[in-house]
Design a protein that fits this description.
8-stranded mixed sheet, globular, alpha/beta, 8 helices, 12 strands
Length: 237
């Protein structure tokens, strides 16, 4: 099985839609998506993801299933140092790098700062929604944090969603604390992240990243990669 995560196009957050550039990105993306053999498409309920997805649906003649748990992971926490509420993944390095608890794959959501926003509860909602979906596709998570193969398949499952929730799911799949991905990696708008199920032992599957935040469809079309969500200049080579 392949899991394909696509971040929405360049966002107009005020309208919860896309900028003019974002719509161009979505059109370019759709040309790439149309070449894929897709089993099912799932989408966040938020406007910017729905709009991005709609262009690919029109191009492919397919339909998408909307999942509420795929919405952006926008839950807020109380930042004691800054004395303000902030999105759970919007840290400064000075508030993150020195905290071992935020790097712990099992305990990060129970750290004091995350507990202020009940993040463990909200993360569990995403994990349970995602795992229930995978089980429908033949892969059931077990108590050892990998997946029992109920029915092997080579299906391509596509998710149109957001950086924050994708990073959360990636952490769940590969055993990494979500804040390490939130703080250490960047997914540009319409970038594509692919994980494949490795089944080296019959009946057992784990997921491994094949491609992370691939934006080559934009570069090949001459469309600059958006810097949205990134705080330095991009390298486009």
């Amino acid at each position: 099985m392949k899991l394909i995560f696509i971040r929405h196009g360049d966002p107009d957050y005020e309208k919860d839609s896309l900028t003019e550039k974002g719509w161009r990105e979505a059109e370019i993306l759709a040309e790439r998506v149309a070449k894929w053999d897709i089993k099912q498409i799932y989408c966040s309920p938020l406007g910017r993801a729905q709009d991005t997805c709609s262009v690919s649906l029109k191009k492919t003649g397919r339909e998408a299933i909307t999942c509420d748990w795929l919405k952006e992971f926008y839950y807020r926490i109380w930042d004691e140092q800054e004395q303000q509420w902030t999105i759970a993944w919007d840290f400064y390095p000075k508030d993150f790098n020195y905290r071992d608890d935020l790097h712990d794959k099992d305990m990060w959501a129970y750290s004091d700062i995350m507990a202020s926003g009940d993040i463990a509860k909200h993360a569990k909602e995403v994990y349970e929604g995602f795992d229930a979906l995978l089980e429908k596709h033949g892969y059931k998570r077990n108590d050892r944090n990998f997946y029992d193969v109920i029915e092997h398949n080579d299906d391509n499952i596509v998710f149109f969603c957001h950086f924050g929730v994708t990073a959360l799911i990636l952490g769940h799949l590969i055993g990494v604390a979500a804040p390490s991905i939130w703080q250490g990696m960047m997914m540009a708008p319409t970038s594509i992240t692919v994980l494949g199920s490795e089944e080296r032992i019959p009946g057992q599957a784990s997921f491994r990243v094949q491609t992370f935040a691939d934006s080559r469809h934009l570069l090949e079309a001459g469309e600059p990669v958006s810097q949205s969500g990134y705080f330095t200049e991009l390298f486009e080579g």
